[in-house]
């Protein structure tokens, strides 16, 4: 696991390419005034690996941690990032407060899968990801916004919503020409997905902007503007 320089101040660290691992990639906007980490990792163990990769690349420690949305593979590592300000959409704050109240454990995961077998892929991945629940906690954002926000280091946040998650947020780094998409245009989560659900290409097309050269979603390779247009069917 290592960070790769993408453009300007933006570095990306890919997740596990095996879909069964449900491990999202993360990104860092490196700045001497304090870096911005985009998403937290899917577990404390994953977050510790990300921190080691951050140090190996010589990148500054994050001052802010931005959630692209509230799904577990993007936020469950937050408790291993002490001292950061967690930023996310207000809808995600409410959803994560409810998640934080659940009695997470391997036993609880098994009980939930027995009650709803469609949860099995996600909940089994969680069981593999978290080796100990002793210091585990789901952390809601401490700084929230509704439509948009801008951090002091020039990183912009825009709420886009969508069918994948109601709090989906894209992260814009204008000086680097990079847009971080999270899972915003993905179909609904597997346990909620219907057979005809697919990527929300209309949403992706709305996001394309000539001022941005790179588009990064959380489970794929970075795309150039031309590649993103092709992916979105925009010609």
UniProtKB/TrEMBL annotation:
Gene3D superfamilies: Ribonuclease Z/Hydroxyacylglutathione hydrolase-like. It holds the Pfam family Lactamase_B. It comes from the Bacteria. This is Glyoxylase, beta-lactamase superfamily II. Residues 23-219 form the Metallo-beta-lactamase domain. InterPro entries: Metallo-B-lactamas (IPR001279), NDM-1-like (IPR050855), RibonucZ/Hydroxyglut_hydro (IPR036866). PANTHER family: ACYL-COENZYME A THIOESTERASE MBLAC2, METALLO-BETA-LACTAMASE DOMAIN-CONTAINING.
